[in-house]
Design goal:
Layout lengths: L1 H32 L2 H21 L3 H12 L9 H22 L1 H8 L4 H5 L4 H20 L4 H23 L5 H10 L2 H13 L13 H35 L2 H15 L3 H20 L2 H27 L2 H5 L9 H17 L3 H6 L7 H23 L1 H27 L8 H17 L7 H22 L4 H19 L1
Helix pairs in contact: 1-8, 1-13, 2-4, 2-7, 2-11, 2-12, 3-4, 3-7, 3-11, 3-13, 4-7, 7-10, 8-9, 8-10, 11-12, 11-18, 11-19, 12-16, 13-14, 14-16, 14-20, 14-21, 16-19, 18-19, 20-21
Length: about 500
């Protein structure tokens, strides 16, 4: 885990800077400068654009992830692997661009009643979708070379800095809202362009012929890409169905509220995503070498670290949720329970760690399609029933429940198929301590009349009684190692 610790720590720090800037943008400036309807429009355009990107990549991201270790050969220009992936991606982008244009009347009709504002900006989804689709594949290609930092810099920091600048311009009446929307759509082109230039600088942007790949192996990769393309729809639609259906059934204002809470909840998953980003390529290498001991080792370690960070972050936010939401408009109060139900699903997702990566890169990846179909149908059916009754809280309940059952199903399959599990006895005291701290935090939730003092008390409670014992008694060695590496890195930087 040495490489994983070092790179994921850097990725995590950059991502936290990005989340901080994102919070300034979406958690502060969006709420101060934009109306709730305008927030809903921006987030709906991004949600549809990301869905477009994920649909149009045709599984190319998973092809890179799974098969690049077999083709990595600098002397032979990786056997034309990059060109092969780009051909898949190009076909997907062309096809879904045509589909999006052809079905415009049907999509417009879907949003005509409650989200008419979206119709006025319908075509600005396309630059978001195409740019992000290219970014996903280029970013995964860089990760295959263990180059994780630059893509995080240009997307998590660069993109958000541009959004920040456009918000200031709109706030000062230097641009119209229409120009603000257009700029935020075109901004997605810039990180993708930066990755292309960076790959060229590293001499990795090689458009060689794909003759180095045999027909048999091409067939295997096509087959794998198709299966994982449909498998990936589960995660995509879970993140998009709520937004799309809320915009249809309730309206774009409710979409603004829901997507803001989803963004705030995503902060908890930043460390987990950083670790997964670095660990996932190693899983493919372990399958190649059939090193199941190393596979289970990283599986357990990622799960344990994610458990500690996830529970700690959740407790800090949940114990202070009323105070934090007191700064938001009254229409955001339903977001408290949206946050809770979303986090129940996401905490379990973090705890089970690499089960998705292990599943997707194994020879039994086809069976994941069963879980994907169940996930999609569950979210859709629950949304149909719960959104009309409970509004945005119903959408959060459906997503949280679906994620719980989805992850449990995949966990059991990975265990029975490969004899791998992410659990260890050292995780039990961590969970018990967390439950105890939550109980104490709720018991003393009104200890101070001053909100800032209460916030400081709750944070100190979590840090002292949850993180303290874990660090002092070394209950989770990997978390301690992350902290020590972080402090050592900071000391070196201060001395330099």
């Amino acid at each position: 885990m040495g490489f994983v610790q070092k790179d994921s720590l850097r990725t995590m720090l950059i991502s936290y800077f990005g989340i901080g800037l994102g919070f300034i943008n979406k958690g502060l400036l969006f709420l101060l400068i934009l109306s709730t309807e305008q927030i809903g429009l921006i987030n709906l355009l991004i949600a549809v654009g990301i869905l477009f990107a994920q649909l149009s990549n045709f599984g190319s991201v998973y092809t890179i992830w799974r098969f690049f270790p077999f083709f990595h050969n600098e002397e032979r220009n990786n056997h034309g692997f990059f060109s092969f992936v780009l051909s898949i991606l190009g076909l997907g982008i062309l096809l879904f661009s045509l589909i999006y244009l052809f079905f415009k009347p049907q999509i417009v009709q879907f949003y005509a009643e409650n989200s008419r504002l979206f119709i006025d900006y319908y075509f600005w989804v396309i630059p978001i979708g195409i740019s992000y689709s290219l970014y996903l594949s280029l970013e995964m290609y860089l990760r295959s070379f263990k180059k994780n930092i630059f893509s995080i810099l240009v997307f998590d920091l660069g993109l958000r800095l541009m959004v920040f600048a456009s918000l200031i311009l709109f706030w000062q009446d230097l641009i119209s809202f229409q120009n603000f929307v257009v700029l935020n759509s075109l901004f997605y082109i810039i990180p993708t362009t930066c990755l292309i230039l960076y790959l060229s600088h590293l001499n990795l942007l090689r458009f060689d012929t794909i003759k180095g790949i045999s027909k048999r192996f091409k067939g295997i990769m096509y087959k794998y890409s198709i299966w994982n393309y449909f498998n990936s729809l589960g995660a995509i639609l879970v993140n998009s169905l709520d937004v799309l259906m809320i915009a249809h059934y309730i309206g774009i204002k409710a979409t603004g509220v829901y997507t803001t809470i989803v963004f705030l909840a995503s902060a908890i998953q930043v460390p987990y995503k950083a670790i997964i980003r670095v660990s996932s390529p190693l899983v493919a290498e372990y399958w190649k070498s059939k090193d199941m001991i190393a596979m289970e080792d990283i599986y357990k370690k990622v799960s344990s670290v994610s458990l500690v960070i996830g529970l700690g972050s959740f407790m800090i936010l949940w114990l202070n949720i009323d105070y934090l939401f007191s700064f938001l408009k009254s229409e955001f109060q339903d977001g408290i329970w949206v946050f809770f139900f979303l986090m129940m699903g996401r905490l379990l997702d973090m705890f089970f760690g690499l089960n998705g990566s292990i599943f997707a890169t194994s020879k039994k990846y086809k069976y994941d399609l069963v879980f994907t179909i169940v996930l999609i149908l569950s979210v859709f059916a629950l949304n149909l029933y719960l959104i009309p009754i409970y509004g945005i809280i119903g959408a959060a309940i459906s997503t949280g429940c679906a994620l719980v059952f989805y992850n449990l199903g995949r966990l059991l399959f990975v265990y029975f198929a490969f004899k791998l599990n992410p659990f260890s006895l050292r995780q039990l005291p961590i969970i018990i301590i967390a439950l105890g701290v939550l109980f104490l935090g709720n018991t003393f939730s009104d200890l101070f009349d001053n909100g800032i003092l209460q916030l400081a008390f709750q944070c100190a409670l979590v840090i002292g009684l949850f993180f303290g014992p874990i660090l002092i008694f070394n209950l989770e060695p990997e978390t301690n190692a992350y902290l020590k590496n972080g402090l050592s890195h900071l000391k070196r930087k201060l001395k330099a």
